[in-house]
């Protein structure tokens, strides 16, 4: 027998305010704060309030003037539905790491299809524990309710009934106690039901279908069919965007990049969720500090090694921002990323050796991490490494380049002995002070660029028993380098 689907609805009654509170210090969060809306013909009224405001006697729907009179130190800000919808979108992207089927119900709700997750997380309790672990990392007040139908889960959650039972009978009993005012029906239909003496959903569910259609129309029949689990409209599931674009309101003007590190942590966590859901890493992104009037300040952050964990990115970002100045205070901060690379899975032996491929790859990654930290601290141009060139002239066989990825396993083109220390300028020597041990190696090259060489190289020992690399050219002898 096919098992019916199970849905959870996650209601966030003060999502925008919670987002703003999370960017404040503990002391600021304890101050009474509200968000006010001016929709309709009435004046501004309270739509969201924190715990301190509720404790001071402020209630939702209260006129803003009355609220400020009751609590003179009250901090008021305007409610912005578009901003809250953006926060809801970020929340969906965060949960997408664990749950693939998520439907957005703006401005404050998410519908989660969790039936098939029980196999992944070891049963119904395992799904709950995984979701709770994910939500604990976010400072968001949520009401989470289950339902055998999306509408049932939504009604229970938005009415404040936090019930995660998988038993249909318990969910139906809780649904029957919900008042018509919390039924999500249009106001006109709510009034019609209340005029008929129907004050709870249980009263509505006891009416015959024929009577419902005759008295309240076909829309009511569809509504009740959903409450009974007989009808389930199709859902439009959330699909994460291909590029990462997130923006945070800083609430107050910020004068330096160092002060932006705390809100930046939130953006990096969102970026980690984005990357984790796609198994990608990021090699660079752009930070934008938005000002009141001036064009945004752009800072490009690049990594020598592809990263995906927020803690790894934050350390390198902080090092790079230490070299930046913010000439104009910022009101908002955004992060744009579209330079991604696929993650490469790696395994290693329990007892690695230096010939093991994975051992060498691990060494390369460690060197790349060091390279990235030095770049972040000193700048990309300040950290360079030697790159081999296909030129037989020793002084032209390499060049110094910035921003290249270091490689431990690069195979040299020349297999003949070469000194570790090559002098920047050759030094004339007296051959009687040297004893030849190996050679000659003739190098004739460079005729194509106007710097030809015609040399016979030898490995020799000087009077102090030092091993040098010398050569003879046009009858004269020169020292070109030292062996270790």
UniProtKB/TrEMBL annotation:
<comment type="similarity">
    <text>Belongs to the DNA polymerase type-Y family.</text>
</comment>
<dbReference type="InterPro" id="IPR043128">
    <property type="entry name" value="Rev_trsase/Diguanyl_cyclase"/>
</dbReference>
<dbReference type="InterPro" id="IPR050356">
    <property type="entry name" value="SulA_CellDiv_inhibitor"/>
</dbReference>
<dbReference type="InterPro" id="IPR043502">
    <property type="entry name" value="DNA/RNA_pol_sf"/>
</dbReference>
<dbReference type="GO" id="GO:0006281">
    <property type="term" value="P:DNA repair"/>
</dbReference>
<feature type="domain" description="UmuC">
    <location>
        <begin position="30"/>
        <end position="157"/>
    </location>
</feature>
<keyword id="KW-0227">DNA damage</keyword>
<dbReference type="Pfam" id="PF00817">
    <property type="entry name" value="IMS"/>
</dbReference>
<protein>
    <recommendedName>
        <fullName>UmuC domain-containing protein</fullName>
    </recommendedName>
</protein>
<dbReference type="InterPro" id="IPR001126">
    <property type="entry name" value="UmuC"/>
</dbReference>
């Amino acid at each position: 027998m096919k098992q019916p689907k199970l849905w959870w609805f996650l209601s966030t009654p003060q999502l925008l305010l919670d987002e703003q509170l999370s960017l404040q210090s503990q002391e600021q969060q304890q101050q009474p704060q509200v968000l006010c809306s001016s929709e309709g013909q009435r004046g501004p009224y309270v739509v969201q309030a924190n715990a301190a405001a509720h404790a001071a006697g402020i209630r939702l729907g209260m006129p803003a003037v009355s609220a400020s009179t009751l609590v003179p130190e009250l901090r008021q800000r305007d409610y912005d539905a578009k901003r809250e919808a953006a926060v809801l979108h970020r929340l969906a992207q965060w949960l997408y790491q664990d749950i693939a089927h998520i439907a957005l119900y703006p401005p404050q709700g998410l519908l989660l299809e969790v039936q098939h997750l029980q196999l992944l997380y070891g049963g119904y309790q395992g799904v709950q524990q995984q979701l709770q672990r994910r939500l604990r990392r976010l400072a968001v007040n949520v009401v989470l309710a289950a339902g055998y139908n999306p509408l049932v889960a939504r009604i229970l959650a938005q009415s404040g009934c936090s019930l995660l039972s998988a038993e249909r009978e318990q969910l139906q009993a809780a649904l029957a106690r919900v008042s018509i005012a919390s039924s999500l029906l249009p106001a006109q239909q709510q009034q019609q039901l209340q005029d008929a003496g129907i004050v709870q959903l249980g009263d509505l569910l006891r009416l015959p279908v024929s009577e419902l259609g005759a008295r309240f129309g076909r829309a009511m029949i569809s509504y009740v069919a959903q409450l009974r689990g007989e009808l389930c409209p199709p859902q439009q599931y959330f699909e994460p965007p291909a590029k990462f674009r997130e923006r945070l309101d800083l609430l107050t003007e910020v004068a330096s990049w160092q002060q932006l590190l705390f809100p930046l942590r939130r953006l990096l966590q969102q970026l980690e969720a984005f990357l984790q859901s796609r198994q990608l890493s990021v090699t660079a992104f752009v930070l934008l500090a938005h000002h009141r009037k001036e064009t945004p300040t752009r800072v490009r952050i690049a990594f020598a090694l592809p990263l995906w964990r927020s803690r790894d990115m934050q350390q390198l970002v902080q090092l790079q921002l230490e070299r930046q100045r913010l000439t104009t205070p910022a009101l908002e901060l955004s992060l744009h990323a579209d330079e991604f690379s696929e993650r490469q899975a790696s395994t290693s032996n329990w007892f690695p050796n230096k010939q093991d491929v994975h051992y060498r790859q691990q060494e390369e990654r460690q060197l790349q991490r060091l390279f990235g930290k030095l770049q972040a601290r000193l700048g990309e141009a300040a950290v360079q490494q030697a790159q081999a060139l296909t030129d037989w002239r020793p002084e032209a066989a390499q060049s110094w380049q910035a921003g290249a990825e270091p490689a431990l396993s690069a195979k040299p083109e020349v297999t003949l002995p070469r000194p570790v220390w090559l002098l920047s300028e050759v030094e004339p020597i007296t051959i009687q002070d040297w004893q030849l041990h190996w050679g000659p190696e003739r190098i004739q090259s460079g005729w194509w660029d106007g710097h030809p060489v015609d040399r016979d190289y030898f490995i020799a020992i000087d009077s102090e028993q030092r091993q040098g690399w010398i050569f003879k050219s046009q009858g004269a002898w020169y020292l070109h380098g030292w062996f270790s």
